[in-house]
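go over this record:
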Amino acid sequence: MRALVIEDDAALREQIIEVMKGAGFAVDSAANGIDGNFMAEEYSADIAIIDLGLPEVPGLEIIRRAREAGRSYPILILTARDGWQSKVEGLEAGADDYLVKPFHKEELIARVRALLRRSGGWSQAKLTSGPLVLDTSAQTLTLSGHPVELTSYEFRVLNYLLLHAGKVISKSELNEHLYAEDSERDSNVIEVFIRRLRSKIDPDGTGNPITTLRGAGYRWDWPRPEGDD
């Protein structure tokens, strides 16, 4: 998952980046409204965390412009404790949730994960599909009730596929949403992760949870429970 953090307070920005990276996110960041506005409109992201009190271009304006540009990723706004009016304005501008400063890192991650689940049409922290249960809070996987060990990147790939279940996800999209901007990216590595996931989730090759569409990408095809789509 890829997060965009727009915050002018250097210490807080670095704290958020550290927390997000620790939770398995690739992170892009901006320290002012001008850079943040450009990144919000042009960068690929799964979620944005935007401070409302930004210099040069206010957070509210960044949100409005991003939505006008067709950016549909969830937006979590950061606001001061007494800024109730800013909360309302932020939500009306197109934000999905808000977090009051100061905040605990656990609450930040919980809200981010909840927004990502909702954007993918999931209502629970445990993503259930066929005999598989991926717990996005505990970052664990069980298959027919039995634990399955995943590496950090295997978890990220599986989480992304599940959150976009039924949609075709290209290798380039997976690369963009898994790795930091300055990382070397090799599409062959994605193939390795997919192959490993298949061997762990569907070792006998009969369930076919991940469909490969030649030249297009991958699609998660196991069904969700009723009411979670």
